[in-house]
Amino acid sequence: MNHKDAYDLRGLFWPDWLKEHWHKAGGSLNGLTEPTVSQVLYSLVIANKPSDDLYHLPYTIVETGVYYGATACWLALAAKEADAQYYGFDVLNDSVTMVNKLFEDHDLTSNARVLRGSAPQAVIDLFAQDGEGCSIDLLFIDDDHSGAHVEDEYRTLWPLIRPGGIMAFHDVIGGFPIWEVIKSFTDDIVKLVSQPFNQTGQAPFGGLGILRKPVD
């Protein structure tokens, strides 16, 4: 069974250009986020836009670890729909260049861009430029999956999440310690299983952990 059969891209309507890019990049068998997870993140951006009493500008989405950019494109589409700003971070020059070109080709540059840098410091540096009033509405963590790095990102970036905002983690299922690290800090995180088994016959992997910051 090839990667095209493993995930049939159901759910939200996939633009033809994004479907083609996902397959061309090798799909989840080449490390791309499962389509269902990308679509859940898109929906969260739309659904969790701050209400009037919590509103601030800009409405901000951040992703650490862009890679081939399939999820980045979904988040950029959501940013355009929600009048938000998306910032992606990656340490690979090729990823930064490729995904920014996708944004340019599909009229997403007004709401989205990818920057070269390593989280969490690159995220801190970006928001420090804009003063203390900035906050993140949705942060998707999908870069270095080592326990120490995930813990560093959680400790460093959680204070930047607005009340009612979301911190989400990819790959909470499988061989990475992400779920255990976050559970050691809080029991409030929810695990969503986007694919209860891997149709390619490999061990289960992926999933999405969602942590929402309480509203004071």
Structure write-up:
With 216 residues, this protein is of the alpha/beta class. It has a single domain (3-212), classed as 3-Layer(aba) Sandwich (Rossmann fold), CATH 3.40.50. It has helices spanning 3-6, 16-24, 35-47, 70-82, 93-105, 121-128, 147-157, 178-183, and strands at residues 60-64, 85-90, 112-116, 136-141, 161-173, 190-192, 206-212. A seven-stranded mixed β-sheet has the order 3-2-1-4-5-7-6, sandwiched between helices. Helix 3 (35-47) packs parallel to helix 4 (70-82). The termini are far apart.
| Overall SS class | alpha/beta
- Identify the CATH architecture: 3-Layer(aba) Sandwich
Which CATH first-tier class would you pick? Alpha Beta
Number of strands: 7
Major sheet size, sense and barrel closure: 7 strands, mixed
Average pLDDT: 88
* Terminal CA distance: 49 Å
Shape: globular
SSE run = HHHEHEHEHEHEHEE
In terms of quaternary structure, what is this?
single chain
CATH superfamily: Vaccinia Virus protein VP39
* Count of runs of 4 or more consecutive helical residues: 8
Please mark out the parts with pLDDT under 50 across 5 or more consecutive residues, or reply none.
1-6
Q: Which fold does the CATH topology refer to?
A: Rossmann fold
* Percent of residues in helices: 25-40%
